[in-house]
Amino acid sequence: MTDTARASLFAPLLIMTFHPRLMTNYITICVSTFLFALILAVGAEKNNGKDLLGATTAFDAVLVVFTGTIL
């Protein structure tokens, strides 16, 4: 589970690092957030909606802060 969590954050950061265009960053954030939320919803069926919302928001915050510092 830890490796999956690392990969879900590491892959978008690599894409945004090596392709530092604004539109690439926006698309990467949208796609990776959708995939993260989908995998989390399917994998953690016992959790309720607020846990999914909190985890997705934290994931998104990391990507947005990274985008703000790289540009």
Explain what the structure shows.
The chain has 71 residues and is mainly alpha-helical. It has one domain. 86% of the residues lie in helices and 0% in strands. The chain is built from three helices and no strands. α1 packs antiparallel against α2 and α2 packs antiparallel against α3. The longest helix has 22 residues. It starts with a helix and ends with a helix. The model has no long low-confidence stretch (mean pLDDT 86).
What class would the helix/strand composition place it in?
A: mainly alpha
Overall domain count: 1
Mean of residue pLDDT values: 86
Total of helices: 3
Principal-axes geometry comes out as: elongated
The largest sheet, given as strand count, sense and whether it forms a barrel, is:
none
As a whole number of angstroms, the C-alpha radius of gyration is 12 Å
Count all strands and give the number: 0
Distance between the termini: 31 Å
In terms of per-residue confidence, which ranges show pLDDT below 50 for 5 or more consecutive residues? none
Strand proportion: under 5%
H/E topology pattern: HHH
- Estimate the helix proportion, in percent: over 70%
How do you describe this structure in short?
The protein has 71 residues and is mainly α. Helices cover 86% and strands 0% of the residues. The protein has helices spanning 2-18, 22-43, 49-70.
